[in-house]
Structure formats: C-alpha cells, structure tokens
From TrEMBL:
Keyword terms: Cytoplasm, GTP-binding, Hydrolase, Magnesium, Metal-binding, Nucleotide-binding
Entry's EC annotation: 3.6.5.-
Complex and partners: Monomer.
NCBIfam families tied to this protein: Obg_CgtA, Obg_CgtA_exten, PRK12296.1, PRK12297.1, PRK12299.1, small_GTP
Encoding gene (name): obg
Organism: Nocardioides luteus
Positions of GTP binding: 168-175, 193-197, 214-217, 284-287, 313-315
Domain of life of the source: Bacteria
Location of region: Disordered: 64-88, 481-520
Domain (OBG-type G): residue spans on this chain: 162-332
UniProt protein name: GTPase Obg
Compositionally biased intervals (Polar residues): 511-520
Cofactor: Mg(2+)
Length: 520
C-alpha cells in the first residue's frame, strides 16, 4: 500500500494528563507528636496544546500516530511538598488547520504562526490535608484525589492559507504556471491529473510577496465525486482571489475556453463560499499557434463579463509578469481590509450546567435522581471512597451547595437512588438525608477532638496557678500542688515535731547504718 506524503484530514484522539493525588500526612518530631497536618497537594496534569508551526505543511504525523497523551502530575508528599506539574504536550499543526468535534462543530480555526488551542486541559491536582485544614477542621484525616485529564476525539482539517488560488481543468497548465512564477517544483507531465495534492508557491510582485495555491484539476461532475479537484477546493477557501487557468490549445473535442470557464464556475458554485472572490482569467498556451488564435477569438467574450484577461504561456513565460502584478494588486487590496491579528491562545472549557447554583437534578422514569453539574461531578472525582471521612466531606460539600435540599424538594426519600455525573460513568448513592440521620449533631467531618480536649498537664498548671493566690507564707508551689492533689493541708513541719515524717527513726534503722557505712 502506498504511503501518503500529503494528509489534510485526520481524526485525533487526545488525553490530557491526570492530576496528582493529594496526601494526608501529620507532622511529627520529638516532643511534637501532633504537629499538625502537612500533606502537600498533587501537581496538575499536562495539557495538550495545538500550535501553528510555519514549518509544518501536512497532518501526516497524526495520520500515523492518531493517539496522543500528556504526562500526569506528581503526587504530593509530607512536609508540605507539592507534586510536580505534568509536562504539556505541544502538537504542531499547519497554518490554516480547522479543529472540529466528531459532530462536525468547529471548535477553532487556527490561522497565524504561534496561534494555540488548548484542546484538552490537564486534570487538577488533589488538595493535601494541609490545604483542607481550617479553624474548624484542624486535622483532616483525608486528602482529595487528582482529577483525570480531559479526553477528546477531534477532527483536524487543513485548509491551506494562500492568497491566490489557481483553478481549471486537468492539464490546463496550473502546475506549469506556478513553477514559472515561483520556486515551487510540482510534478508536471503530459497526462491528466498529474497533480494529486495541493502545491504552494511564493511569488513576489513588486513590493508585494504572496502565496499561490494550485489544486488538482476540476472536471464536470466533480461535485458528484468525479475526479480529485473538488475534494481539495477547501484549500482555496481562504484565498483573496481566484485565477482561472484555461487551456486554449486543448485537443479534446467539444472543448472551448468559454465552456471551460462556465463548467469550472458551476463547480465552484456547488462547492459554495467562493462567490465573493475576485477573478482573473489566464488564457494559457498562447505559444501554440492555434492557442493564440483561439485566445484572440474569445478574449472579447470574457471582457464582456467584466473579467480581466491575460494571454500567457507558462512554457515560455510570455505574459506571466503582467499576471503577477495583477495578482499582487488584488492581494494588496485584500490585505488592507483585513486587520492584523496577533497569535491567540484559545482554551476550550465545558459550559456550566444550567440551573440553581450550577447544578441540575432530574428524575428519571425509574425514579432515580440524576444530578449533573461541574461542581458536584468534580467533587465526586476528587473523593476517595475508601475513606469514610472523605465521603463525609463530600456529603458536607453537596449539602452546602444545596443538592440535598433540592432532592428533598423533588420528593426524594431515604433509600432512593441518587446518581451524580454522566450515567455511563457515574457514582451511585443511596439517599440519606442529614436531617434524619442526625449528621448535623456530629460536627464537621475532619475535625480532630484531640485539638479540642485540654491536655492534663495544662489543666494542672492552671489549677496550681489559681491555688497560688491563696497559699500560706510558708508554702512553696510544690506544697500547693500536693495540697490540691491530695486534698491535705500544709506540708511544712518542725523537725522532730509530730508532723515530721522522720520522727519514728530508730537507732537500728538499716538505712542509717548503710549511710554510716557508706560514709566511712
């Protein structure tokens, strides 16, 4: 099978990188067993960007490799370390690439070097528990998951950006003309349909430099699929003007320049979108005696139609310079009316769901409640359903958004099925109203009661501080502490008195003898 060298239509599958997961971590060090949450955030996934590159003239790379994927974001880590960003994947495309979805809707028309389209945006990184902590939720025991990157199936269609388009029958001399007025070197042979792909040439007319496009020859019935040219007419849709290249020396029976022009104009009309382009007529091959004679016989008819006619010979170069200057004038006039557009960057973003607070709730025929909206669907993707605390956090978020209230308004009862997201890839819940379950009495998910419970040592210190205000003169802080702890009175005593704990010491106390012995 022949390997194509020019591809102007492809279907491309793109998938952006997934965001890295956040991390639930607690800072620990000596004497700080509960130093607080320090889990870092996950890095965002890499996006896929289409960028116009003047050095790229075909879509052949995507014909051979139609699937492209960007890198994922890195996972967060403890000690407030965030994950690395996924690297963006930049796909170079030719100038004039039209991007469509699979339904044929135009997403962007990339014209101008450097123009960009973010066709698939990388997933957001999940938040670590340090970012989720607040004054009311001091130690979250969970983190959010990274979101998957966008995945799309798109169509790329190349429409060559040229100033002048050459149209005509096969073997009319279009390729010879573009080779004569530029450095383009298309294939030229003495048989029809030599040109199989569009050719571009750069031409200089005075101070104006412009491009000329040559498309495969048109024949009658091209709109019905005959020949090759009609398929490539989209490559001249951006042209400022068209040049009819007419063969005045054709040996085919029944052919004449007037009929050739009418047939080509009919095919252009059936293609559509080219009615407003100015036309020039180039009567080619006047270097042949019969060709010059026929040109002189028909030039008057063309001029009656308001067309500017040039008698040329692509082989000898006769008349080509005058044609070049006429094309340059049309290009200069067209450029005056077109403002200079700087390279743009377009980001495709999904439309928000209609309805209150950015979400909608619908009841299916089966009695299921379908919740759709950017926020609830994104929150579901971020939730680790293996972590009960994370699931509770999701319930709190949905409740604050008003989802639960809306479900109750629509008649949802405990145990009813609630589906969040696209039914093909959704998360299914059994409805459990927080009012009935008493969830409002449990406090916010993610709270750590250890931060609210007073440590015993701190409580004792405050108690002793209060007791110091009523201490006796002979009491030290330790005496106050002992009195408060044991409920006894002062511990000060006279040596040898009744309160002296050593008053019952005897001569045969083994402790004394050991002390005496050790003293020796």
């Amino acid at each position: 099978m022949a390997v194509p060298t020019f591809v102007d239509r492809v279907t491309l599958h793109v998938e952006a990188g997934r965001g890295g997961h956040g991390v639930a971590s607690v800072h620990r060090e000596k004497f700080k067993p509960l130093g607080g949450p320090d889990g870092g955030n996950g890095g965002p996934g890499g996006s896929i960007i289409l960028r116009v590159d003047p050095d790229v003239t075909t879509l052949i790379d995507y014909h051979h490799s139609p699937k492209r994927k960007a890198s994922n974001g890195g996972q967060g880590a403890g000690d407030h370390k965030n994950g690395a960003h996924g690297e963006d994947l930049v796909l170079p495309v030719p100038d004039g690439t039209v991007v469509t979805d699979m339904n044929g809707n135009v997403l962007a028309d990339l014209v101008g070097p450097g123009s960009e389209l973010v066709i698939a945006e990388g997933g957001r990184g999940g938040l670590g528990n340090a970012a989720l902590a607040s004054s009311k939720r001091k130690a979250p025991g969970f983190a959010l998951l990274g979101e998957p990157g966008e995945a799309r199936e798109i169509g790329l269609e190349l429409k060559v950006v040229a100033d002048i388009g050459l149209v005509g029958f096969p073997s009319a001399g279009k390729s010879s003309l573009i080779a004569a007025i530029s450095r383009a070197r298309p294939k030229i042979a003495d048989y029809p349909f030599t040109t199989l792909v569009p050719n571009l040439g750069v031409v200089k007319g005075g101070e104006i430099t412009f491009t000329v496009a040559d498309v495969p020859g048109l024949i009658e019935g091209a709109a019905d699929g005959r020949g090759l040219g009609h398929e490539f007419l989209r490559h001249i849709e951006r042209c400022a003007a068209l040049v009819h290249v007419i063969d005045t020396a054709s040996i085919e029976p029944g052919r004449n320049p007037i009929d050739d022009l009418d047939i080509i104009e009919n095919e252009l009309s059936r293609h559509g979108g080219l009615e407003d382009r100015p036309r020039l007529v180039a009567l080619n091959k006047v270097d042949v005696p019969d060709g010059r004679e026929i040109a002189e016989m028909t030039i008057g008819e063309f001029e009656k139609r308001g067309l500017k006619v040039f008698e040329i010979s692509a082989a000898s170069g006769e008349g080509t310079q005058q044609l070049i200057y006429a094309m340059a004038e049309l290009v200069a006039a067209a450029r005056k009316d077109v403002p200079v557009v700087p390279p743009t960057r377009i980001v495709l973003r999904p439309e928000g769901a209609e309805g209150k607070n950015g979400f909608t709730v619908k009841v299916s025929k089966n009695g299921e409640y379908l919740v759709r909206g950017p926020q609830p669907e994104r929150w579901v993707r971020q939730t680790d359903f293996d972590n009960e605390e994370a699931v509770g956090y999701l319930a709190d978020r949905l409740n604050r958004l008003g989802v639960e209230e809306r479900l109750v308004e629509l008649g949802a009862e405990e145990g009813d099925t609630v589906i969040i997201g696209d039914p093909a890839n959704a998360v299914v819940f059994d409805f459990r109203p927080s009012i009935e379950t008493g969830a409002e009495m449990l406090g916010r998910r993610g709270e750590d009661q250890r931060f609210y419970e007073e440590r015993p040592a701190a409580a004792r210190r405050r108690e002793i501080d209060a007791g110091m205000e009523t201490k006796e003169e002979y009491e030290a802080r330790a005496d106050v502490a002992r009195r408060l702890r044991e409920g006894s009175g002062p511990v000060a005593y006279e040596i040898g008195g009744e309160d002296d704990p050593d008053s019952d010491w005897a001569e045969n106390d083994p402790g004394e003898s050991s002390r005496s012995t050790s003293g020796n």
